[in-house]
Design brief:
Blueprint (H helix, E strand, L loop, with lengths): L30 E6 L4 E3 L5 E2 L4 E14 L2 E10 L13 E8 L4 E6 L1 E3 L3 H22 L1 H72 E5 L4 H4 L4 H6 L3 E5 L9 H4 L2 H13 L10 H4 L14
Antiparallel strand pairs: 1-4, 2-3, 2-8, 4-5, 5-6, 6-7, 9-10
Helix pairs in contact: 1-2
Length: about 300
């Protein structure tokens, strides 16, 4: 037995598709389709409500003599039968028909049911009626057309003024934001300048302290003390060496350079003094063995 779902089927060499008879169908034949209710409606027979999206097995046909700019209009037939969970007093099987409405891109109820009230549809219908009546009135009354154009131009001017006010407000808010950002940036630059000045001041103080402690002298002055034979060669050079000055009154004390914790630790150690000396005990003394000196052997 061959497979039921296959991609390729076998065609014999003598197969001729023109010999297959074509099926004759009537011009306006109905097709069975599966669809969902396009809008919520109420059955005119039993009064039950049919919500939008309920599925039906419908019959579809083309409406004869009706089209919208060459677009075909289709009619659908459904049978409403209440389910077991809905209390339908008559258990009707009324036939409901509706057709497509390409003008409004919608569906229109035709027979057996009435469409539920939808306020947005009425608003659109009222707006369309007002627009058509306005156009008809302008065609018959030129003064009314002039008044309508004047009202429309005034409305446009009001809209442009409001738009200009909004743009001016937005521009003012942007300028305020930019000024705030500029102030913040200037404040940050001032802080950075103060930090740089403080760092430069600290570096200058360090350099001053180094100059007070150390000094640079020519290398020819010290060459005589090191080696008399090389004094002439060193004296001719212009090298400079750094030497430490003698401790004077301006040189800080060692204790002042230490931190508080280090000074406290040194003071504590000096107050306790040196620890007592403990004599090391050997393993023989630990066992209770007394070691006596060996007699020296005199040479004969």
């Amino acid at each position: 037995m061959s497979e039921r779902k296959v991609l390729n089927k076998y065609f014999p060499p003598d197969f001729d598709p023109s010999l297959i008879p074509r099926r004759r169908q009537p011009k306006n034949s109905q097709q069975v389709v599966r669809l969902m209710a396009p809008f919520s409606m109420r059955c005119n027979t039993c009064g039950e409500y049919i919500y939008k999206g309920k599925k039906f097995n419908a019959r579809k046909e083309t409406v004869e003599g009706e089209d919208y700019f060459g677009i075909k209009i289709f009619r659908f037939y459904i049978k409403w039968q209440a389910s077991f969970d809905v209390e339908c007093p008559t258990l009707c099987s009324a036939e409901i028909t509706f057709k497509t409405d390409p003008k409004n891109t919608d569906y229109a109820a035709e027979h057996g049911a009435s469409r539920n009230f939808e306020p947005w549809r009425d608003e659109r219908a009222v707006e369309e009626e007002d627009r058509l009546s306005k156009l008809e009135e302008e065609e018959n009354n030129p003064m009314k057309a002039l008044e309508n154009r004047t009202v429309d131009s005034k409305r446009e001017m009001d809209i442009l003024d409001a738009l200009q006010d909004i743009r001016a407000r937005n521009a003012r808010n942007e300028r305020v934001g930019q000024s705030v950002d500029l102030l913040d940036r200037l404040h940050m630059e001032e802080i950075e300048n103060e930090e740089d000045l403080e760092q430069k001041r600290a570096e200058e103080e360090d350099e001053k302290l180094v100059r007070e402690v150390f000094a640079k002298v020519p290398a020819a002055d010290t060459s005589v003390t090191h080696d008399a034979g090389l004094s002439e060669d060193v004296g001719t050079s212009h090298e400079v060496i750094t030497v430490k000055r003698k401790a004077g009154a301006d040189e800080p004390d060692l204790q002042s350079l230490l931190s508080e914790s280090a000074r406290a630790l040194l003071a504590e150690k000096s107050s306790k003094g040196a620890p007592p000396f403990k004599r090391k005990r050997t393993s023989k003394n630990l066992l209770g063995i007394k070691v006596t000196g060996k007699n020296k052997v005199k040479a004969v």
